[in-house]
Design goal:
By secondary structure, the protein is of the alpha/beta class. It folds into 4 domains: 2-78, LysM domain (Membrane-bound Lytic Murein Transglycosylase D, Chain A); 116-196, Membrane-bound Lytic Murein Transglycosylase D, Chain A; 208-318 and 463-540, Rossmann fold (3-Layer(aba) Sandwich), CATH 3.40.50; 322-454, Rossmann fold (3-Layer(aba) Sandwich), CATH 3.40.50. It has 17 helices and 21 strands. The protein has helices spanning 2-16, 44-51, 55-61, 129-136, 140-146, 169-174, 187-196, 220-238, 259-262, 279-292, 320-334, 356-367, 382-388, 404-418, 438-447, 463-476, 487-505, and strands spanning 27-30, 33-37, 75-78, 116-121, 160-164, 180-181, 184-185, 206-212, 244-250, 272-274, 295-298, 313-315, 339-344, 372-377, 395-399, 426-430, 450-454, 527-529, 536-538, 542-546, 552-556. Strands 9-8-10-11-12-19-18 form a 7-stranded mixed β-sheet, with helices on both faces. Helix 4 crosses helix 5 (140-146). The longest helix is centred in the middle third of the chain and has 19 residues, at 220-238. One of its GO terms (molecular function) is lytic endotransglycosylase activity. Residues 82-95 have a biased composition (Polar residues). Residues 34-78, 119-163 form the LysM domain. Residues 82-111 are annotated as: Disordered. InterPro entries: LysM, LysM_dom_sf, Peripla_BP_I.
């Protein structure tokens, strides 16, 4: 178990870039931060004593920490209590050995003194905790903090009670917290965490900013369409009584600086920011959001590391590593015990690189013994094709390419091999790009019981989509571009979800991400905080199914 913890901490260090660290049994130093692994029996109260900081400081540094996930093995950040000029945090050392590097030498631990200024003996039969607290001029909470056994029983004659020293302001902040043994948290510790958390603040008029490249030639049409969809969301919200002040800024091309935008006076008063597009703008905008505690929604890129160290970031587009792990889990659940056929339908060019999804699904299926896996190369004869398909199991056919050319070649091959009426159960499984080929192959999708995975999907026949498309056409006298995703709908979905969520829940928004009353048209929102001190990644994934009954079913896995 210990080796697993050390590996986890090592990976954290490698991820953020090695600077300096000192490894012990429960913590790692890195860039003047302490990454602490919660040990069995540890509580917030104990950590405040070890590191000489308040509960609020720990919770502020770890926005994802709650009474429900303060668990053995969790890694949290212990913030510095010093100024930026002297950032080394000095914990009371609880581990036998630490290797120091880069001249990082914490001072020796503070001296230990008795927690009791005197002992009180219970001499009266009906003496109470209240009586003793009054006698010594201390609170009941202070008395129980020094004598935790009193929480669960009454006083008895002959008991010796520890009378603690008068508390400093820091001690008063943490005195209500109790020990947590075997996963059971006491009432006072729950109260401590709940009281330390920021109280819910109501939101009146929402102030939102969009920072996107509206004049950059290559991306202009997509960004304008996103903005147009966003405006439709604002209009819909205003009709329900939600007031929004929207500020829109042109970020310019990727090499341009956005510092002039961030210096605008109104930017410091934003409730939420949407953008940017270019990776070069993410770091300065993320830093601005962190410094000013403003939520930042990044709608487009899935490749940014800022989310791992910034609790205010929401990354909409799922990173591939998260996406594929979700797909594998849902694939195994949906197609249990299936016979999987991977078919290289067309000749691949010399510089061909296998799709990451295909590579990982092969590896995943090799460990899942309930599946059988067959591989077909290019165009074998009919008998070889038939032999690859099982007459008794569900057959899941995955083409090795996501291209439209592959589908154009595949469907006639399947029909020629199995005919229109067949006894073999065959289902097609493929890629997000397939939704852009629907107009070319919708009949074949239905005929071959087709599935594909995607983070984005719009059912153009759904009543809500028809209404939105009509409104878009009415407002802008044009249709949306047939892209993946559709940027106008993405603007609508993200704008509506976040603005309504903030208006409804205010400062408690992060605790109610799954409770926002809204059904998106194209994307699902299933946010996962990446760690206790980082932001949120959207892990939502759809399986879209064109069934033989001519229904389009979008499965949103929970």
């Amino acid at each position: 178990m210990k080796s697993v913890k050390q590996l986890l901490l090592f990976l954290i260090i490698c991820f953020f870039g090695l600077n300096l660290f000192a490894q012990g049994g429960d913590l790692v130093y890195f860039r003047h931060k302490i990454f602490h692994t919660i040990q069995e029996g540890e509580t917030l109260y104990k950590l405040t004593l070890i590191y000489q900081i308040s509960t609020k400081a720990i919770l502020d540094a770890n926005p994802g920490l709650s009474i429900n996930n303060f668990q053995t093995g969790k890694v949290i950040i212990i913030p510095s209590t010093q100024t930026s000029k002297n950032p080394e945090t000095t914990p009371v050392q609880t581990t036998p050995r630490r290797e120091q590097t880069d001249n990082f030498n914490p001072p020796p631990p503070a001296a230990v003194m008795s927690r009791c200024r005197q002992m009180h003996r219970v001499t009266k039969r009906k003496e109470t905790i209240y009586d003793i607290s009054k006698e010594y001029g201390i609170s009941i909470e202070e008395l129980i903090a020094a004598n935790p056994e009193l929480e669960d029983r009454t006083l008895e004659k002959g008991d010796f009670i520890c009378i603690p020293y008068p508390q400093s302001p820091l001690s008063q902040t943490v005195s209500k917290e109790r020990s947590m043994e075997n996963g059971i948290v006491s009432t006072t510790e729950k109260q401590l965490i709940n009281e330390t958390k920021t109280k819910k603040e109501a939101v009146g008029t929402l102030r939102a900013a969009i920072i996107l490249p509206f004049t950059e030639i290559e991306s202009r049409s997509r960004m304008v369409e996103y903005y147009e969809g966003f405006l439709l969301a604002v209009d819909s919200l205003k009709r329900t009584g939600i007031s929004v002040e929207l500020y829109v800024y042109d970020s310019g091309e990727s090499k341009a600086s956005i510092s002039s935008i961030l210096k605008q006076k109104e930017m410091y008063e934003m409730d939420i920011i949407f953008g940017p597009l270019f990776s070069t703008h993410i770091k300065p905008l993320a830093d601005f959001a962190l410094t000013n505690k403003i939520r930042l929604v990044i709608p487009f890129t899935s490749k940014t590391n800022e989310v791992f160290d910034n609790p205010y970031i929401y990354q909409i587009n799922t990173p591939q590593t998260y996406l594929h792990s979700e797909i594998h889990e849902h694939f195994a659940r949906e197609f249990k015990d299936a016979n999987v056929i991977i078919w290289n339908v067309t000749e691949q060019p010399e510089d061909y690189r296998e799709d990451e999804f295909l590579k990982e699904i092969k590896q995943y299926l090799s460990y899942e013994k309930s599946f059988t896996v067959q591989t077909l190369n290019v165009t074998p004869n009919v008998n070889i094709i038939k032999d690859a398909f099982s007459p008794t199991r569900t057959n899941i056919l995955i083409p090795a390419s996501n291209s439209n050319i592959t589908l154009i070649k595949l469907f006639p091959l399947l029909t020629a091999t199995f005919g229109k009426v067949r006894e073999v159960d065959i289902r097609l499984f493929g890629y997000p790009e397939w939704q852009t080929y629907v107009k070319d192959h919708i009949d074949e999708y239905f005929e071959w019981d087709t599935y594909f995975y995607s983070s984005f999907y719009t059912n153009n026949l759904a009543p809500e989509t028809v209404t939105f498309t009509g409104n878009y056409r009415k407002w802008y006298s044009k249709d949306m571009v047939n892209t993946y995703p559709k940027y106008g709908i993405l603007g609508y979905d993200t704008g509506f979800y976040f603005l309504k969520g903030l208006f409804t829940y205010g400062s408690e928004f992060e605790n109610n991400l799954s409770n926002v009353s809204f059904t998106p048209l194209q994307i699902g929102f299933k946010f996962h905080r990446v760690n206790n001190w980082g932001g949120f990644i959207n892990k939502n994934i759809f399986f879209v199914h064109f069934s033989k009954d001519h229904e389009i079913i979008k499965t949103n896995f929970e």
